[in-house]
Amino acid sequence: MKYLKIITALILIGSIAGTGCKKSWLDVNDDPNRVTDENITPDLLFIQSATAAGARQASNNFRFVEHWMGYWSPPGDFAIEQDETSYNIDFSFGDALWQNHYGVLFDLKLAKDKALATGDSCLAGAAMILSAKLFQELVDIYGNIPYSQAFNNDQYRQPVYDNAAEIYASLQERLDSAIIYMSVDAPKSSFETTDVINHGDQVLWIKFANTLKLRMLIRQSETPGFDPSGEIDKIVNYFGTLQEGENIMVNPGYVNDNNKQSPFYANYGNTPAGVDAATSTRANAYYVNLLSSTGDPRLSRIFRPTSGTFVGAVYGASTGNPFGTASSRLGPGLAGSASQDAWIYPAFEAMFLEAEATARGWIDGDAQEIYERAVTESFVFLNKDNEDGDPEAEAADYLSSVDIAKWSNAGSSVESQAKFITYQKYIALGGVDPLEAWSDLRRLNMIPDKGYISANPSRLSNSLPVRLLYPQSEYTTNADNVNAQGTINQFTSKLFWQP
User: Fold this and answer.
1) How confident is the model at residue 185, as a pLDDT?
2) CB 55 within 8 A of CB 250
3) What digits encode the pLDDT tens for the residues 147-172?
4) What fold is seen in the domain 7-14+36-244+339-483?
5) pLDDT tens-digit profile of 371-409?
6) Per-residue pLDDT tens digits for 440-475
7) pLDDT above 70 for 200
8) Which of 93, 243, 276, 339 is deepest in the core (most CB within 10 A)?
9) Claim: this prediction has a pTM higher than 0.85
10) pLDDT per residue as tens digits for the range 293-338
11) What dihedral angle (degrees, nearest 10) is formed by the CA atoms of 287, 289, 291, 292?
């Protein structure tokens, strides 16, 4: 199986391979600049892989989901992507996403293994928590994936594909182990500096792990006979999930310089020279109309006005869309500055999970109160670097005056309340986590109309694909195992948790 090997791994291989020769009498000095297995420490590996995890969340690899979910669209001066806008995707469509996710997972495994070898259990636990997030995302995009044999290249040159449901169960166990690692030992003195995400806050790491556990449970909510009670007890009895202000962010020291900008800003803001870095990324008319029709003040933080108004493009339309200069770019709540923190998991997303779990009766509490706090936190999140307006007051007005946000319109059934909560979650996730919104849509079909569907008349379906096809690189290098998954169709090959 072909995985992207990030530079640290290549350096390791090269340095190890070079140790077979004996030093001659001429080798009187060791080169202090030569990278060896000994001086690639778990701390360095973790900083690199944690930063890469943040970059994955901001990656261009997820732009197609932003388009599919109705958040973004290319403007009229770009030809439409026929495969993406028609949903007629092929085996190469998700290749880069697959390779890049596995590349970060490879580095996280190295960081974990080296941390455990040096007795740094907290660092190992942090690496395991990040890897659980990325593995779940791969499952939610592709279904069965290489997991148990992944990265054991000395034993398994072509790793088998593990069952997706079994991977979910294993990830729950891995997160339990990571929580133990994060709990039983005092961190090393270097952990606070090495931890460029939570700055040594072990409780925050545990809450993040619990949030990921809850996310997997929520994903399986529509699976017949599913009982989350055992895992829920672990979560609520040990610190719970992320709350207000507990955003999981990474920032190793981003600055406005080449290859040093915060990744989302680098991809969708301005270059260091002040030039638009994403001329093909503009507001989607569907999302602009949704936010403007309810007077949602988040509109001005998600997008920037052009000529005093917000203008979106119709996704999939081949003619008639406004050009880039006449359509809205991403706003300061998303692409604010070159030095901004890179989000890995925002607190408001966790709070929406908690609200749904409470509505389902899994967690004791007031679903309305948690839901309203989640909406409010989404306003605060988009205003975190701008300090304009009063996001709490704006949220309170929105919740009390907008019909689609009033809890009185949520209904009394679990199904209606879950859809109500996840629809507001969908509205809050634009530009932040489109994969979560796509997963909710596949699980609950909570969006009340089809306005987000591509306008391309050649589209294969009036519904979004339920998954991506396995990448071409797998059919080239791991053919037996990927072919064992059978014929995969992007519309009918549902994931195990889909109803």
Assistant:
1) 81
2) no
3) 999 998 889 999 999 999 999 999 99
4) 1.25.40
5) 999 999 999 999 976 667 899 999 999 999 999 999 999
6) 999 999 999 999 999 999 999 999 999 999 999 999
7) yes
8) 93
9) yes
10) 999 999 999 999 999 999 999 999 999 999 999 999 999 999 999 9
11) 150
Place of tokens 């942090």: 126
Query: Is residue 209 within 8 Å of residue 132, measured between CB atoms?
Result: yes
* Residues pairing with 345 in the sheet: 248
Look at the block and give the residue holding tokens 């069965």.
Answer: 144
Q: How many CB atoms lie within 10 A of CB 466?
A: 17
What residues are paired with 306 via a beta bridge?
309
Residue 143: CB atoms within 10 Å:
23
8 Å CB contact between 303 and 329? yes
